[in-house]
Amino acid sequence: MQIDVRIDGAGDGPDEEQDAVHVARAFERAYQQAYLRFHRRDGKRSELSGASRAVLTHLAHTGPLTVGEMAQHLDRAQSVVSDIVTQLAGKGLLARERDPANGRRTLVWLTDDGLALLDRDREVLSVDLLARAVARMTPQDRAALVRGVRALVAADDDAGPSTDENPTRRRPT
């Protein structure tokens, strides 16, 4: 299926806003097709409960913490967080280690398997499906693809906080 993404002359005419809308619509149509072709279909969310994902993600952002610190940060009972940590440690995703600064404290941290699982869990698109398609692209098109998407995200970052129709859009963490 060919996607209509003709944007020749965009940005060259007198009506820059109209050109931006034209490009935005072309990108939106192309993105729909890309998402439908390349999104993950492996039930990635089935590996982790929301509570387990929250603990892993929080640790990835903060670094090693005690169970009590995590409970406070996550606004959960310490016993609940302790149970989650025990479950994740049993799966080899978390490890307990003595705090080198204070041997009486036990810190919890992600194992290599935990970090890898969290990375896979964050993936929206199938790297395998994308790699198969990207392998058939020229090096110039590969570079242009990544450069273009990065430029789009950077342009939005430069725009500051959103006040448009989607004020709660999520930024990557």
How far apart lie the N and C ends?
A: 34 Å
What topology, given as strand order, has the largest sheet?
Answer: 1-2
Query: How much β-strand is present in the residues?
Result: 5-15%
The topology string of helices and strands comes to: HHHHEEHHH
* Overall pLDDT: 85
Tally the beta strands: 2
Structural class: mainly alpha
Indicate the percent of residues in helices: 55-70%
Rg over CA atoms, rounded to whole Å, is 22 Å
| H/I helix tally | 7
Q: What report would you give on this structure?
A:
The chain is mostly helical. The protein is built from seven helices and two strands, in the order ααααββααα. It has a two-stranded antiparallel ribbon with strand order 1-2. Helix 3 packs across helix 4.
Topology:
Layout: H1 16-38, H2 50-62, H3 67-74, H4 78-90, E1 94-99, E2 102-110, H5 112-122, H6 127-134, H7 139-158
Helix pairs in contact: 3-4
Summary, kept brief:
By secondary structure, the chain is mainly alpha-helical. It is built from seven helices and two strands, in the order H-H-H-H-E-E-H-H-H. The longest helix has 23 residues, at about 15-40.
